[in-house]
Specification:
With about 325 residues, the chain is mainly alpha-helical. The chain has 13 helices and five strands. The protein starts with a strand and ends with a helix.
């Protein structure tokens, strides 16, 4: 059976982009593949975090993943720092990737140039090596992610191929799985930018735990354009196309054929808001239940780590042996 691996950072609140770009596919793929999902707390350390906030966000994110439908009976769900093979393999990855390759990562360029970023950690730069370790430790075939992670999966493939050609067959070379709709959910106020876990008031970001009334308002105020034709055209009509993309991702319909059903922007906004709210309703209800018992979530995560570790440790041993470390 093919193996699926993916990860998500416990920083900021979960938003519609995370859900449509990645998590709905995690949920779907777990029924068909051997699946491993990880809350990547070590990745979150690349930017300064408040210790208590990080701890509570890690548990909360795990509860959200369970609420979305990640089933710990079907998938392995764990926290990255509970499986020490991740940072161990990351060092071997750092020695297999070049400074030049890491310098070309757009996520690094974006985050290190962000307004107000005074301290750029070395971890932010070497981040893709840790991500490659995450993926390669599980002999992963498919990595379900949003479009912004395409480059990180590409560099993982390059690292795996280089390691294999230098030291002999060691790693499975993974492929990304990027969905046809929802891979790049855009900010509702700035449709030229992807939706992200931005700070403070975020009129362009829809959060998974947000109040339905607020969500409705955000969609009503979504930026479109001064025309009135509903057409899927990302270049010419980014705002409208982004709404069609969201509606398509939620309903499973093709955004272009959805466009033909609308003559005005108003009904498109209302229907998109409604579809999103209906999708989020059961997730919010399930989350409210899970939130009551953080100890049970922590227990499930430990069980997950106990299942992940033997897989990771076998692959790490293979890599250490092939690269010439004494066993
Ligand atoms: P992160 O935590 O930023 O995002 C988690 C997932 O959400 C997707 N995503 C989006 N999809 C569509 N539209 C958007 N606006 C949007 N914003 C975010 C991301 O593509 C991602 O799939 N580096 C990764 C975490 C990671 C990882 C891994 C992923 C660490 N190790 C190994 C896969 C495999 C990240 O920061 O994702």
């Amino acid at each position: 059976m093919a193996r699926v691996f993916s990860g998500i950072q416990p920083s900021g609140d979960l938003h519609l982009g995370n859900l449509l770009g990645a998590l709905v596919n995690w949920e779907r793929m777990q029924h068909e593949h051997d699946s491993v999902f990880c809350v990547v707390d070590l990745h979150a350390l690349t930017l300064l975090q408040d210790a208590e906030t990080l701890r509570s966000q890690t548990i909360e994110l795990a509860q959200l993943l369970l609420a979305v439908g990640i089933d710990p009976e079907k998938s392995i769900l764990f926290v990255q720092s509970h499986v020490p093979q991740h940072p161990q393999l990351a060092w071997l990855m750092e020695c297999t990737v070049s400074y030049g390759e890491l310098s070309r990562m757009t996520a690094f360029k974006d985050k290190s140039n962000r307004d107000g970023t005074k301290f750029v950690s070395a971890g932010l730069f070497t981040y893709p090596a840790l991500q490659a370790a995450d993926i390669l430790l599980y002999d992963t075939d498919f990595v379900p992610v949003g479009d912004d992670q395409r480059q990180h999966v590409e560099i993982t493939r390059d690292i795996a191929e280089r390691f294999n050609s230098r030291f002999g067959e060691t790693f499975v070379v993974p492929e990304h799985f990027i969905p046809p709709a929802g891979a790049r959910v855009m900010d509702l106020q700035r449709p030229d930018r992807k939706m992200s876990k931005s700070e403070g008031e975020s009129p362009g970001t829809v959060f998974v735990l947000e109040d339905p009334k607020k969500i409705e308002k955000k969609f009503k105020r979504a930026v479109t354009d001064s025309e009135s034709e509903v057409r899927y055209d990302i270049e010419a009509k980014p705002g409208v196309s982004s709404l069609l993309d969201i509606l398509g991702a939620v309903t499973g319909e093709d955004p272009e054929s959805l466009a033909s059903k609308y003559e005005q922007y108003g009904p498109l906004k209302t229907d998109t808001a409604e579809a999103v709210i209906e999708m989020l309703r059961p997730i919010q209800a399930r989350f409210a239940e899970l939130k009551e018992d953080p100890a049970e979530t922590a227990r499930l995560l430990k069980v997950g780590a106990d299942k992940a570790e033997p897989i990771a440790s076998e692959v790490l041993a293979r890599a250490k042996h092939n690269i010439g470390l004494l066993s």
